[in-house]
């Protein structure tokens, strides 16, 4: 049974995954876990700078931001949200499978996570392409003329320069998020290879868990990005 | 093993266990990585020093004769970038911290040895990019990258310098992360939080600043680069963007960065003063907590860099008050160090001379910081040499004095050799005199109105500028000396005993130099930190090196 093979690797008293400078596996796991949480704290600060900029400009130029936001596709954005939430589920399943030595479930969950990650990136690519076609990418060819501000009288048009600021934030925030997704997909490919070699089991699953924490973090960033960028001031 | 007992120098240790370049480049031993860092930051220290020398030479005369405005702008920019990001921020944490944090808490290594090596490689990659940037044109915005000049107007290599700083910032984050996890998870049995050396407390506080501050400047620099490369206009006034937002984000890191430089130095000074007065540090808990206090308050004062940049009067009031508040934990430290010395058995050896230097210069730097935090005085001296003198008193007079003091104090542990005490005292004296001669005249220059960042000045400022340039030359000699005699001592110095200063602390219970895994058996701590009452007096005869 492949499931037993996973745990057999670490069946002996001497654990090959235990690094020399740790007293025991518990200390090693606790260290990795604390290290990962601290790293995620730095990531919060990293995105925090952008969120701070977003907040200030959104309060300042609410109407223009609403108009620019309404040009995004809610369908695509919502689909991507669902895709990412599903991928969080598969990540949790992968960790559970590693803990319970279920090799088939572990591998399939990991691969499904990677696939869902690429589905997200593909949809994001379509959205970027749409923005490019509509001349909504900041730069010399940017154009945002005669777009009405939602909820305002008919002759209120959004200021193109403020819309360009919105799209600057949009591309900076979603671009940075997409970059994290790509890195995450890379990490999960590496985890899958290690899982394929049978390196994880009930005694040693820290890398799966840590990669999972990172993936959840990237998901959560999107959970905030979606309403902040897509749902500023929607009117039916 | 019989020969090992007869000749202590020949014992197997972290330096002689493996040989060859590859054994260094692929090492995960925190002590070897510390030495890799020592070599690389020394290299950048002398590059930054070279720029400083050119700046001072240009300012010898009122007219622009050595360099013109454009070159001068690049000189002070690159002096700042190199010294801040490539020397001061990694200095004590990456060298002494890397070497000592595991030794002091009784661990075999840092929690993540490979991440530690990665951080050095990131530093080197960032350094190479920075060197390339400097050799192919450099940057002229000042180390602060202020927008919109950096995003829209200058045609120098902003993006390349930004990438270099982004990468070296990542290296700094990884060092901080490693320290926090190590201090939490790897302490030896009995090494409770209240028994930690103050050096560890200082590094813990520093690491928190590194972790929470550095990412913010990373995203800020990234946005500047994106504005230049992809026309994203987050700080672009034409789109409604706000250059002041850049300054807020930049100083949110770059003010706490000053505490990344000074806190480890304070940790070093606590160790030195306790050892050379043969007393437990006065008010241990207050000194420890003041490190955390400085780290926390340090995050709440950034806008005092922007009093004249257009922040509201009310915001300025609050930031002014909070800036004064940082004076409280800083003063707690200074008073407690002084109280430690009171009725202590003082020994005026080289590390202690540096600690004295730190005490005096940091106090001057700190008090002039209060001038600058004052809303009434700040507009008068903003962007003058007063500011330049103030932050050099903190960052050179404080941080570098502590770094040199620490290098001397732990040199026997690092190299296994004693440095020549006479030369070391002389160098400490030269550094102190040279430093004051360089920077004290700048306080006066600034107060009477000489602005910073200009390559020429009215003739009446020349006398003080000549004094300053002369001092810089003396200071340069003072910095070269330790490098020379440290190198000399590695070959010709007297072999160091395990505990040449009869100092407290677990690091002195290891051999000099330590073995690869530091402790042959896990130490169990049953005593309080700085138990100098039990250790007795300073060993006079052994401390004289050559």
Describe the structure.
The complex is a heterodimer of chains A (236) and B (546). With 236 residues, chain A is mainly alpha-helical. Helices cover 72% and strands 0% of the residues of chain A. Chain A has helices spanning 2-8, 25-60, 62-69, 74-99, 103-133, 160-196, 206-230. In chain A, helix 2 packs antiparallel against helix 6, helix 2 (25-60) runs parallel beside helix 7 and helix 6 packs antiparallel against helix 7 (206-230). The longest helix of chain A is centred in the last third of the chain and has 37 residues, at 160-196. By secondary structure, chain B is an all-alpha fold. Chain B has a single domain (25-543), classed as Cytochrome C Oxidase, Chain A. Chain B is built from 18 helices and no strands. Chain B has helices at 2-6, 21-25, 30-58, 69-105, 113-135, 149-153, 158-185, 198-230, 243-254, 256-277, 284-298, 313-341, 350-373, 378-381, 385-415, 421-447, 462-492, 532-535. In chain B, helix 8 (198-230) packs antiparallel against helix 10 and helix 11 (284-298) packs antiparallel against helix 12 (313-341). Mean pLDDT of chain B is 94; it is low at 1-9 and 542-546. Classes of the chains: A mainly alpha (236), B mainly alpha (546). The A-B interface holds A 19-21, 23, 27, 30-31, 34-35, 38-39, 41-43, 45-50, 52-53, 56-57, 60-61, 138-140, 142, 159, 161-162, 164-165, 168-169, 171-172, 176 and B 107-109, 111-113, 115, 173, 177-178, 180-182, 184-186, 211-216, 218-220, 222-223, 226, 230-234, 236, 238-242, 245, 249, 252, 517, 522.
